[in-house]
Amino acid sequence: MRRDARLPRPGRPGRRRAPASPASPAEQSYTVVPYENVKVRQLPTQDSAYLATLTAGQSYTAYCWTHGQTITDHGYTNDIWIGFADGFSSAVYFKGDQYANLPASAQC
Question: What pTM did the predictor assign?
Fold first, then answer.
């Protein structure tokens, strides 16, 4: 992530946000890799507050997926958003299947 756009540290109390929240870091985690730089948002919508940018080709820890705003880009359309410690990114921008290779059971 870019240093100028830091996410709050995982596990801090009071950081969860409605309607959907990423899982706590104590729960199962998964590695995801964006194929291009992708923004992390506060909620699973591109109009939500910007938190950080994930760098293409780097590995990141994700905790879950949820349904959110439908995104269409590069010929793909998906409403799945990947949940991180304190934010979400559209699964359209990650390597793997429609869930960025998270199991279907890893829903937020």
Answer: 0.77
The string of DSSP codes covering 44-96 is: SSTTSPEEEEEPTT--EEE-EEEEEEEEEETTEEEEEEEE-SS-EEEGGGBSS
Which among 64, 66, 81, 59 has a CA at the least distance from the CA of 27?
64
Query: What does the alpha-carbon distance between residue 92 and residue 71 come to, in Å, rounded to a whole number?
Result: 7
Rounded to whole angstroms, the Cα distance separating 8 from 68 reads 22
* pLDDT, tens digit (0-9, with 9 covering 90-100), for 30-48: 999 999 999 999 999 999 9
Q: Which amino acid is at 6?
A: R
For residues 66 and 91, give the distance between their C-alpha atoms in angstroms, rounded to a whole number.
Answer: 10
- Asked if residues 86 and 108 have their Cβ atoms less than 8 Å apart, the reply is no
Strands 64-73 and 76-83: antiparallel
